């Protein structure tokens, strides 16, 4: 009977499965970020009855920024997934700071733009 050789990955099955779950969580986060950008842009252009140029610009910036952040986060998380897999096998794992910092700063930027959008659009348009 042929004996099955153990691979480097099989020594750390739990860690690799956790790495995969983390990667899938980043994928869901990226899809959500892009979806929120589309939602805000779509809501702006479908609900506004008055033409407010700054509102149109801000809505477009929010939408494009969300798409950009989602795509860059996807690229970073994919590289991070493979790097962590290699680091787990080599027992040299270090947590990643780049992804967390990038995503945090990017989302703060998007939220600030959304806050400005809210002030300009919903704060300036008189209620009827």
Automatic annotation (TrEMBL):
Pfam family, one: DUF202
Main location: membrane
Membrane topology field: Multi-pass membrane protein
Keywords for this protein: Cell membrane, Membrane, Transmembrane, Transmembrane helix
Transmembrane segment boundaries: 23-45, 57-79, 100-125
Location(s) in or outside the cell: Cell membrane
Domain DUF202: 15-84
Family matches, as InterPro entries: DUF202, IM_YidH-like
Protein name, as recorded: DUF202 domain-containing protein
Organism: Heyndrickxia acidicola
Organismal lineage: Bacteria, Bacillati, Bacillota, Bacilli, Bacillales
């Amino acid at each position: 009977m042929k004996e099955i050789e153990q691979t480097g990955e099989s020594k750390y099955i739990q860690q690799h499965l956790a790495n995969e779950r983390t990667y899938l969580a980043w994928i869901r986060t990226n899809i959500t970020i892009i979806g929120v950008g589309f939602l805000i842009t779509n809501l702006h252009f479908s609900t506004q009855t008055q033409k407010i140029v700054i509102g149109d610009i801000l809505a477009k910036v929010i939408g494009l920024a969300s798409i950009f952040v989602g795509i860059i986060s996807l690229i970073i998380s994919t590289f991070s997934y493979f790097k962590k897999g290699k680091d787990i096998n080599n027992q040299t794992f270090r947590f990643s700071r780049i992804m967390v910092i990038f995503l945090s700063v990017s989302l703060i930027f998007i939220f600030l733009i959304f806050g400005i959008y809210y002030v300009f659009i919903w704060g300036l348009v008189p209620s009827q």
